[in-house]
Amino acid sequence: MKPAKFRYVRAETAAHAVELLCAEEGRAKILAGGQSLIPALSARTTSASVVLDIMRCPGLEVLSQTEGEVTIGAACRQFQMERSPLVQHSIPLLSEALSWVAMPQVRSRGTVVGCLAQANAGAEVPVVSLALDAQFQILVRGGERYQMPAQDVYAAATGTRLPAESLIVSASFRSRAVGEGWGFYEVQLRPGHFALVCCAATLLLDQNGRIGSVRIALGGLTASPYRAERAEKALLGESVENDSMIDEAARIASEERPWPARTDLHATGAFRSKAAVAAVARALMDARVRCSRHPGATNERA
Amino acid sequence: MSGPDREFQEAAWLDSDESRTAIRVVVNGKQVRARVPDRLLLSDFLRDHLGLTALKVACGEGACGACTVVIDGEPARCCTLLAVQTEGAHILTLEGINAAQGLNRVQQLFQQNHAVQCGYCTPGWLMTVYCMMHRSISPDSDEVAAYLSGHLCRCTGYRNIWTAVRQALGNAAEEPASGEK
Question: φ and ψ at A60, to 5 degrees?
Fold first, then answer.
């Protein structure tokens, strides 16, 4: 398998990359880690006039922390983020989810933001971005920059709502609040395979020890990931020890899917719907174990 | 492999009007400069152009691990990389870690444990084990399974490979005689 001919360009800056994208009128492709793009070019399921390598653009390699959030640049590789003490401490849900992404030999090249842009069905990072209220910083034609919340990016039944000829320069994830628990669980055929379904969840208790804040996001069940807001509402104010509420929320989360359950050669939609219930329950239970039962009684700083 | 400016062999399928880019990489400790076709995969560059044929190309899409090499200290597929992407990188292939004579220690462990049968996947495994040893991964770590899941072997059934790798990582303890894994 060899790719068809294209021209390779090493973009000098992020703005240069967008300029070239616009000049090629949709025929150019952004290359970051290339772990999805190169196999697709080789299999010729996609093609490009120009392949634009953004990995050496200044600034895109930056991982930074501001109050309440961690920002990951488009050139940050998955293995670096997985092992980063900052990510492990402030957005542990992401570093946990990254350990489910493909294999170490692929995470050594793949990028976190590439995973967000590619948005393959069953990809883990977009699901985490929904659970952590991520904001994508997007650069468009003319050098204009704006923010787009993950929930808007993944609001379409397939693909993304990213503007044409745009570049995600970075993504910001909400930092773990003091006492907040998190869980990630995935049902897969074998390690390294895409998720049949996966779930990311966070839980934070209020002063009375009841669920004060919760996020549940699901991937793989439908072509695009979604946030299970009805299931979240059902849990608010409930006791975190209530197993039957967790099971009920998991059932609601699977059923409230905004699009049809996905059937492919690996699993039927019916199987995925059931697996999703199990994945949500497991993610919530992991989040429960990790959240602080006595808010205020801890010195932990996220 | 000869000096840096060597005229390398051109693959037969390349056209005369290929768009090309100059790269400079270090392969097994030697500087290599070349003007490579933009669409040339790193696996083809290493095998066909530099004659480093220990790495094997099997699936061509990053799934099987037979083409695994070490790039800047991390194991990576070279069938899912363009040669041009590796500008400035340090690349290590099995040829770079072979013993001057005979087998190196990990290769001996693979042989002793019958972790090799047809051998097509073996160079890939060896590069991953090299990286695991450099990161001092404990033989009891969960990461062992994660790393090994990046390789497919259709002969040995993995158990012998698992044993050889654990021994390479410094645990002489044998796997249980029966039971899982």
Answer: -75, -15
Residue B180's pLDDT band, with cuts at 50, 70 and 90, is very low
Which amino acid appears at position A230 of this protein?
A: R
Structural class in CATH, domain A181-290: alpha beta
Instruction: Give pLDDT, residue A298.
Output: 46
Residues 88-127, chain B, touching A (beta carbon < 8 A): none
- B90 lies in which domain range? 20-96
Residue A249: count of CB within 10 angstroms of its CB: 27
CB contact under 8 A, B62 and A8: no
Q: Is residue B34 in some structural domain?
A: yes
A3 contacts on B by Cβ (under 8 Å):
39, 41
Q: Is A43 on the interface with B (CB under 8 A)?
A: yes
B65·A105 Cβ contact <8 A: yes
B83 and B110 housed in the same domain? no
CB atoms within 10 A of CB A48: 22
Residue among B21, B41, B76 minimizing CB distance to A109: B76
Mean pLDDT over A56-82 rounds to: 98
pTM value surpassing 0.90: yes
Q: How many domains does chain B have?
A: 2
The whole-angstrom separation of Cα A2 and Cα B41 is 8
Please give the pLDDT value at position A301. 47
Q: Which residues of chain A have a CB within 8 Å of the CB of B143?
A: 104
- The ipTM is 0.92
Task: Select A7-53's CATH number: 3.30.43.10, 3.10.100.10, 3.40.50.300, 3.30.450.20.
Answer: 3.30.43.10
Helices (H) and strands (E) in chain A, counts: 12, 12
